Amino acid sequence: MGIKRTLVLLNGKRLVAGGTGANDSPDLNMIPMALIKHIDILKDGASAIYGADAVAGVVNIITKSDFEGAQLSAKLGRSSKQDAENTEVNFSLGSTLAHGHISVNLNYVDNGNALQSTRNPCPLSESDGELNCIYSGTTIGGRATLADGLEVQFNQIPTHHGDHFEVYDSHKHGYNWFESLNAYNPMKRINLATFFDYEFSSDIQIVSSLLYANRRSDQIVTPRRFKPVDVAADFIYNPTGQALTLKRRRNIEIPNPAFYQQTDTIQGTVSVNGTIKNHWIWQGTYSWGRNTGTDGWRYDFDDERVAQTLNAALCSTSVNATLPCGDYFGVGELSDQVIDYVTYRREGTGGNQIHALSIDLSGDLIELPAGPLAFATGAVYRKEKGWRNPDIIAMQNGEEDAISGSTDVKEAFIELSVPILKEVSMADSMSVDLALRYSDYAHFDAKTTYKLGVTWHINEQMMLRSVRSSAFRTPTITEQFGGTNVENLITIDPCENATGHILNNCLAAGMPSDFIQDGSTIRTGGGGNPFIGPETAHTFTFGFVYQGEALSATLDYFDIEVDNAIKSIAGSHMLRLCYRDPVAYAAYCNSFMRDPRTRQITFLEKRPMNAASEHVSGLDVNVRVGGNIEQYTYRINWDTTRLLKHENTAFVGAEKTQLLGKITSDRGSFTKWKSNLTATVLVSNWQAAYSMQYIGKAEDENGGGPIGSNVSNVFYHDVQASYSFDNSLTLSIGIDNLFDKRPPFLTSWNDANTDVFTYDTVGRRGYLKLNYTY
After folding, report:
1. Which H or E run includes 599?
2. What would the pLDDT profile of 287-297 be if each residue is shown by its tens digit?
3. Which residues pair with 536 in a beta bridge?
4. CB-based burial label for 714 (10 Å; 0-12, 13-18, 19+)
5. pLDDT tens digits for 552-576?
6. Do 717 and 739 meet the contact criterion of CB atoms below 8 Å apart?
7. Is residue 519 part of a domain?
8. Order of strands across the sheet with 521-526?
């Protein structure tokens, strides 16, 4: 259902979003793994209990409140290709005070780089049942469209004549951008977390936490480009003798313009808990989080200045000219003077902030024949904001817009747990859970959500449970207030190798029958939509639980139907729908522009909108087995999901898009089957663990040839072995992706010739870990 529809909490409280400005979800890296006690996962709609965003469920991370002593752990790892180095150091300290407890964790992580070119020599495309290298149409030396319509490529070999040019050929002149692409992004991170509780009296306690995280990354990116520029026929460096449009030049004359990021995140929470005379419990909580970030390129090209250096009326060829004329016609022709004039350090800043104040009261109201009638009630005020201040030059050149938006909500809720039966035939107990929540958002109409749940304990081993609820999600800051951000995104033009209705509609739109897409990326503008509204959902779950001494199992059915679903349609999908039915999908046909001469798409825009509906259903199965065989202790945990339905309708009257069994270019995999198995064996001082991840077969949503149109089942295997020398020292060694499983090729790959949201792109990697407790 997407990360925006799952609410993530830390000890029951919301976290600030993490990133470099106006982001949509928290950065889980800020949470200290060493102090996590357990993680509660609620798999049904929970807006009535937790508020908006809990459409598909809630993940609540619970930290240890009683950690004692000190623990130091160190981990070293790398991939089998001698890259992707990983270093991690963790130190935790916990102590009981006179009337309280304090825990502190310090964490440092350094992840090294891994290049895509060491795993995939080139980007691939399928033709005639074979995979062949394809290359970017943004080339070394630059390309141009001449006044007579001819596409030409300028000199690409530094030792050749600088004014040489010839007819452009993508196979001969294209650029292999995998040489400047990461398979694994380098990152350094330092975290500090403290948890403190103090008991003022037997009736009043204070609980607080403070987390800080600093993250830095520095990674290679492809050499920068600039916007197309019209150049006069008589411009001094123009070797063609014709007026032309200079475009898609890969500027390798400067060092690779490394992309850098730095973020600082702080999250604090203070709660005061108390008990009143009738044993009711009250709690008042204030939480605050703030995230700030900076990112940019060390070298970027100023489009306006590039145009100036190609305008003879403005530039000069004289030595030490303030505004020099630029020779962009061939590789290695740009002078240092021109490079200094047209490049700059591009840097943007941004952040996210959250304030939340809540008051809660819970207890038992009255005693019923089957037990006490329990209740919980409370009120919440929450304010969130996000902002993004792009580089001024990037804004002037139309590459990015500023973002600034905020929202606040006032909420009140009540929950009741009503015991119905107790210790009767076929029912050890049965209870009904009711919840109602009223939410009043600043920019939208107030919304009331409900939950109705039934829990039936047949006996000590078996239980049935069911929940029907309503849920909703308001647009994120970026979805509502985000300005345009331009990127080159991998996008498939359906008019290449088109057949059937798509071919007929492409021809009717003036496309040549032998059209070939120039490169694999399209300049795409994404951003927010000020007219977007909330989405609402209705959820139903029904499950069976068996709990025995050695075996426990759960089987749950889920059904989630979202109305006015907030969707941002992938560019490839928009284009395919446009040419499948230009009348029904006229809005998609109006979202892109083509060059009148070459018929290549020059710009595509996609923004979030309220779709008609999204409907998902499936089964979740969990089996846990544990016990002892002689001196061996074993544990097995197996989770499996069978997706039964995943339908999307773009708007009323549009056809349903079936995602069940599909894999997409930007939303991940909707395979029918997914499964995770973990097995652990302990004997004496040894422990061994094995885990397997299974991703079922799927079809590419964009079709394609016999190789990339579908993917087979994929298995990943991880192993680990540990030895405890005594009660304080443990040494572990492990290998992830044991059999070095390579990701499958997909027609609709987004990077690395595969779906990087679903498959492992790094390969086999091992690690050594040391834990010392004292």
Report:
1. none
2. 999 999 999 98
3. 472, 563
4. buried
5. 999 999 999 999 998 888 888 889 8
6. yes
7. no
8. 485-490, 521-526, 601-606, 592-594
Q: What is the mean pLDDT of residues 391-401?
A: 87
Angle at 21 between CA 138 and CA 387, to 5 degrees: 115
β-pair partners for 433: 417, 453
Query: What Å distances lie between residue 167 and 150, 163, 235, 300, 307, CA to CA?
Result: 7, 14, 20, 28, 24
Residue 502 lies in a domain: no
**HSE, side-chain direction, 13 A CA sphere, residue 259:** 13
pLDDT-derived band at 432, boundaries 50, 70, 90: very high
The predicted structure's pLDDT at residue 65: 80
User: How far, in Å, CA of 490 to CA of 335, rounded?
Assistant: 32
Residue 72 maps to a domain: yes
Residue whose C-alpha is closest to residue 174's, from 125, 239, 111, 101: 125
Answer yes or no: is pLDDT of 396 > 90: no
Query: 335 is in which domain, residue-wise?
Result: 3-124+132-484+527-568+607-660
Q: Kindly report the CA angle at 490 between 485 and 493, in degrees rounded to 5?
A: 110
And the tokens for 365? 């109201």
- Residue 207: enclosing H or E segment and its boundaries? strand 204-219
Residues ≥6 apart with Cβ < 8 Å to 522: 488, 489, 491, 493, 571, 592, 601, 603, 604
Residue at token pair 């009904």: 432
Going by pLDDT thresholds of 50, 70 and 90, the confidence category of residue 237 is very high
Number of other CB atoms surrounding residue 376 within 10 Å: 16
- For the record, the structure tokens of 706 come out as 């016999």
Whether residue 695 contacts residue 669, with contact meaning beta carbons closer than 8 Å, is answered with yes
Per-residue confidence (pLDDT) for residue 256, from 0 to 100? 67
Q: How many domains does the chain have?
A: 1
Higher pLDDT, 161 or 470: 470
Q: Residue 568: which of 476, 686, 439, 431 has the closest Cα?
A: 476
Task: Read off the pLDDT of residues 187-226 as tens digits, 9 standing for 90 and up.
Answer: 999 999 999 999 998 889 999 999 999 999 988 888 888 9
Give 5's Cβ-side CA count (13 Å radius).
22
- Beta-strand (E) ranges in 276-370? 281-301, 343-368
765 within a domain of the structure (yes/no): no
Rounded-to-integer distance, Cα 678 and Cα 542, Å: 25
CATH of residue 266: 2.40.170.20
